[in-house]
Design a protein that fits this description.
Blueprint: H1 2-6, H2 22-50, H3 75-89, H4 95-120, H5 129-149, H6 173-191, H7 199-217, H8 219-225, H9 236-254, H10 263-280, H11 286-290, H12 292-311, H13 322-328, H14 333-353
Helix pairs in contact: 2-3, 2-9, 3-4, 3-9, 3-10, 4-5, 4-10, 5-6, 6-10, 6-12, 7-9, 7-10, 7-14
Bound molecules: Muraymycin D2 (57M).
The site of Muraymycin D2 has 29 residues, from helix 6, helix 10 and helix 12.
């Protein structure tokens, strides 16, 4: 909105020229989302408590009994403050920005329905696994189909560290992109089991993708770094900035001991949009490094379940996802979260190094 209202005034007052710059608007999108979260958070948490949107804790497995009754569905806070901030600072004529908003909101809605069924309707399982998966594929499919129809689309896959390895996936790009989005969404969801555990690496991954998206949208920079250049995608930097801000604002309340959990409305939407942004800037494979922590958590579940079935009941980890294993061997919750953040920072730095190491 500011871009449309204030930038035209630069003809009269040159200061307003600053609203043209993506970097300026991204920084203020971050600040706006962060402040909105911190300001609105206490009201939302009080409201969630009042209407009894509270987490029911599985008491049998971990020592989370003292978390019983913590309000959940705090992802609404992330969604609302992020969206408001993007509407204020973004160029609202940009198709990539709207596609990102569509995907983020679509997955948010799936998560909201799932949470609502579990938390409010007290249906233990929420949406069925099949139903949830189908809804995710539908929303992701719609976004990717529109993306494929845009002029800047390319089905080429850029392989990190190998400049000349660029296979063209052709029509296979569609199922590949769906797997990236749905996989990323579920990876964040599985990770969201300790205070601050999912949102910390989200902030780090979003920060990293901010740089990748900015570079992809900047033809000269992309050419210099020899990465894919996608005209117009740079505007999604504003969304990334707002995601970092909303993530920091949510962490304010989700830091140990958490006053609120994000719920599926938060984890599914955040995970999906990280995948989508990686697709937009043609860094699909780098996402495996950027979101390496989510990958490790997911792989720990696959290994645990596979081994359990194969051996007829034996386990590799005390419990999966991996964070539960560390909990069960006695590592304090906040130590696990902070150590996982440190690993995420390390992975983000490796991911950024792919910009140069080609
Ligand atoms: C998300 N949800 C949390 C909260 C959050 C296949 C299997 C591995 C699936 C997995 C699973 O259900 N994953 C889905 C995990 C839950 O958090 C809610 O869910 C939202 C995210 N979707 O926002 O609303 C609990 O996590 C804790 N929590 C915090 N702080 C936070 O900021 O402490 C969440 C956010 C909350 C709270 O206790 O209630 C969850 O874990 O349920 N299943 C599991 O993760 C289970 N693992 C398991 O059964 N492992 C087996 C097999 C199947 C691999 C094994 O190893 O043998 C764990 N679930 C729980 N305890 N509750 C086991 C331990």
């Amino acid at each position: 909105m500011f871009y449309h209202l204030l930038f035209p005034l630069s003809d009269v007052v040159s200061f307003f020229n600053v609203f043209r710059y993506i970097t300026f608007r991204s920084v203020y999108a971050l600040v706006t989302a962060l402040l909105l979260c911190i300001l609105l958070g206490p009201r939302l948490i009080a409201w969630l408590e009042r209407i009894k949107y509270k987490q029911n804790i599985q008491e049998d497995v971990t020592n989370h009994r003292n978390k019983q009754g913590t309000p959940t569905m705090g992802g609404i806070l992330v969604w609302g403050s992020l969206l408001l901030s993007v509407l204020l600072w973004g160029d609202l004529t940009n198709t990539y920005l709207w596609l990102t908003i569509f995907l983020f909101s679509g997955f948010g809605l799936i998560g909201f329905i799932d949470d609502y069924l579990k938390v409010v309707k007290k249906q233990n399982k929420g949406l069925s696994v099949k139903g949830k998966f189908l809804a995710q594929v539908l929303v992701a499919g719609a976004a990717v189909t529109v993306l494929i129809c845009l002029p800047g689309y390319s089905s080429v896959l850029y392989v990190p560290f190998f400049k000349s390895l660029q296979p063209d996936l052709g029509w296979l790009y569609l199922p590949f992109a769906l797997a990236v989005i749905v996989g990323s969404s579920n990876g964040v969801n599985l990770t969201d089991g300790l205070d601050g555990l999912a949102i910390g690496p989200t902030i780090i991954a979003a920060g990293c993708l901010t740089i990748f998206v900015y570079v992809a949208g900047h033809a000269r920079l992309a050419d210099y770094l020899q990465v894919a250049s996608v005209a117009g995608v740079g505007e999604v930097t504003v969304f990334c900035g707002a995601l970092v801000g909303a993530g920091l604002g949510f962490l304010w309340f989700n830091a140990y001991p958490a006053q609120v959990f994000m719920g599926d409305v938060g984890s599914l939407s955040i995970g999906s949009v990280l995948g989508f942004i990686a697709i937009l800037c043609k860094q699909e494979l780098v996402l495996v490094i950027v979101g390496g922590l989510f990958v490790v958590e997911t792989v720990s579940v696959i290994i645990q379940v596979g081994y359990f079935r194969f051996t007829g009941g034996r386990r590799i980890f005390r419990m999966a996802p991996l964070h539960h294993h560390f909990e069960m061997i006695g590592t304090p919750e906040s130590k696990i979260s902070v150590r996982f953040w440190i690993l995420s920072i390390l992975l983000a730095l490796v991911a950024l190094s792919t910009l140069k190491l080609r």
